[in-house]
Design brief:
This protein is mostly helical. It has 19 helices and no strands.
Length: 510
């Protein structure tokens, strides 16, 4: 069941809201939480009921281990607590490793040693990467005494809460557990804000992301089928995908936040205009913010962070991003993507140190210097996205070669008559049109206010490690005005009318 589907918008969501708020209206808060947990499991099982055979046992095992950790810590039995902690990590990582990486491992062993090992194709359960990281973070915090005894009902909803279950945000227990335990009154303003953010997210998906996909997908598929794109076509494909990925994942995050507000739950922000970043460090503070903070707090710092000197710091940065790439998918393209971003971060930190030693400050202060830094950062991100999107390393290399001009320059079909004598492009879509569409969408990402700037939404109170800069006064904060209601209603209606083809969100595959 997709957020951008009629069955979700007109059936599942209204029913869930009716049951939840109906029970709360008659004073059954815990019953409302129970129903929401059951509806969340139903939502997950809608894709395939067999997925529940993984989610529910893992949820119960983690609940038992977490409470065992609390017990053994209270009894001052650190060895027993450590054994249970290691057991919990192994169970979660084993499940993730088997479902996500077993086929990849077998394929590479066969290629490397010439063996003929066989493993039946394993279907990747939806959202396994997201809910595995979420549970690991909780176990770590329980082990270090940051979390007390858990209630099964609240823990179940923490794991399965359907707005963020499939593709995030990766919520921290301190952000939502207190909200599940102490449900406050859902004010009309929250409902209005939730509908507004959901409508903005739906429009991003249907009007922007899916439009960009029409120009990115055919060209990347053609390269995967060993076609060679020309310079303009390759850049139009890369930029179209850059726009598609941004608006697609930003849309899901917005819709998740909007739905959460309808139930009185504030979820953390996940995007803060990442393509406006002036360096890669800033990019990762803005892009997929909940994943960035997990990698920082539970991997980078665990590896030693910056506490053991600059060389070790750079190694830790590289390893963190490399593992972050592998988290996204079982393929060498994701390994390269993570390695690229690890290298980018090392260069960025090294550049900052050099500027400081030269007395120039850590960042360029002039407008021209900042714009140049933003352009360099954006181009580096685009190149990395090619590996993120490509079907395999051969397709990624072919696309990069084309973007470097190694396949020559051909004229898009729409411009052939204006440039006689030049070879016509054979790309599956018109590169000129694709380039214009991609640039128009990217201009929105660069120049338009983001969702939190439009609405003033900042996430949970005291959001754990969010690193979100204050977005400033809302551009059009909900104030009950008829004009604002008409604008949002019209946006929602247009999105619904154009929602003829229901497309999955990109991050569902992770």
């Amino acid at each position: 069941m997709l957020f951008n589907s009629y069955i979700f918008i007109f059936a599942f969501l209204p029913l869930a809201l009716l049951l939840f708020h109906g029970l709360r209206r008659f004073g059954h808060d815990r019953g409302a939480v129970f129903v929401l947990a059951v509806m969340s499991l139903f939502f997950y099982g809608w894709w395939s009921p067999k997925y529940l055979l993984l989610l529910i046992p893992l949820m119960l095992v983690n609940y038992g281990i977490a409470n065992a950790l609390v017990f053994y810590r209270s009894q001052e039995r650190p060895r027993a607590a450590k054994l249970f902690f290691i057991l919990g990590l192994c169970i979660n990582l084993a499940a993730l490793g088997y479902f996500k990486y077993a086929n990849f491992f077998v394929d590479n062993v066969n290629a490397l040693f010439g063996t003929n090992l066989f493993l039946a194709t394993i279907v990747l359960p939806l959202g396994i990467s997201f809910f595995t990281f979420q549970k690991i973070a909780l176990l770590v915090d329980v082990y270090y005494g940051k979390v007390g005894r858990l209630n099964l009902l609240d823990f179940s909803l923490f794991v399965a809460f359907f707005p963020q279950l499939i593709a995030g945000p990766i919520v921290h227990h301190s952000e939502v557990m207190p909200q599940f335990k102490q449900l406050g009154r859902v004010q009309a303003g929250w409902v209005a804000l939730g509908v507004t953010i959901f409508a903005i997210g739906l429009a991003k998906k249907v009007l922007l992301a899916d439009t960009a996909a029409n120009y990115a997908t055919p060209q990347f598929n053609a390269v995967a089928a060993v076609a060679q794109l020309d310079f303009i076509a390759a850049w139009s494909a890369a930029l179209a995908y850059t726009a598609q990925l941004y608006f697609d994942f930003s849309a899901y995050s917005d819709m998740a936040i909007g739905i959460g507000l309808l139930f009185g739950i504030r979820l953390p922000l996940n995007f803060a205009s990442p393509y406006k970043a002036a360096n890669i460090i800033d990019f990762w503070r803005r892009w997929h913010m909940t994943l960035s903070r997990f990698l920082r707090d539970y991997l980078y710092i665990a590896l030693g962070g910056n506490r053991k000197g600059e060389p070790r710091r750079y190694v830790n940065l590289f390893l963190t991003m490399l593992l972050g790439g592998i988290w996204h998918g079982a393929g060498w393209t994701f390994v390269v993507w993570g390695a690229l971003h690890g290298s980018y971060l090392i260069i960025n930190h090294g550049w900052r140190e050099m500027r400081k030693r030269l007395g120039l400050g850590s960042e360029a202060t002039s407008l021209a210097g900042r714009r140049l830094a933003q352009l360099i950062t954006f181009l580096a991100v685009v190149v990395a996205w090619v590996f993120f999107r490509a079907a395999d390393m051969g397709a990624a290399t072919s696309m990069i070669n084309a973007m470097a001009g190694n396949n020559g320059i051909a004229v898009p079909a729409s411009l052939v008559q204006l440039v006689p004598g030049w070879p016509a492009s054979t790309a599956p879509v018109d590169g000129g049109v694709a380039l214009l569409v991609a640039l128009a969408l990217l201009l929105l990402a660069w120049l338009a206010p983001n969702t939190q700037q439009i609405t003033g939404y900042l996430g949970p109170e005291g959001a754990y490690g969010s690193g979100v800069a204050e977005p400033g006064p809302a551009v059009m904060r909900w104030n009950g005005s008829l004009i604002w209601a008409i604008c949002i209603g019209s946006l929602f209606a247009v999105s619904l009318m154009l929602m003829s083809r229901v497309s999955e969100f990109i991050y569902f595959q992770f």
